[in-house]
Amino acid sequence: MAHMVDTEKIKALLWSAVDELNLQLRRDQRLAKSPEERLTGEGGRLDSLGLINLLVLTEQRIEAEFGCSVMLADDRAMAADTNPFATLGTLTEHIRKTLEQKLS
Length: 104
Known about the structure:
Elements: H1 7-24, H2 48-66, H3 75-78, H4 88-103
């Protein structure tokens, strides 16, 4: 049976990671906590280092909350038809799928 992961819990973890990342960014670079916020690609707010920082901060929170280690930037993510790192919304969905697979 697949383990269902609460999307709101994932958003809370991701928003916490965004808060911490924003402390490291200039005011004009900070991310809005919105599913539509563009992370990468055209209009993206993060460079590659910023994205890595956000992913690591998020992975740390996932491990603390769910007790399992995940790697969000794995081969599956890189080969996906749609960019899982395009927006905070697509990242939330990617985290949910990754966690459900890991916990099942």
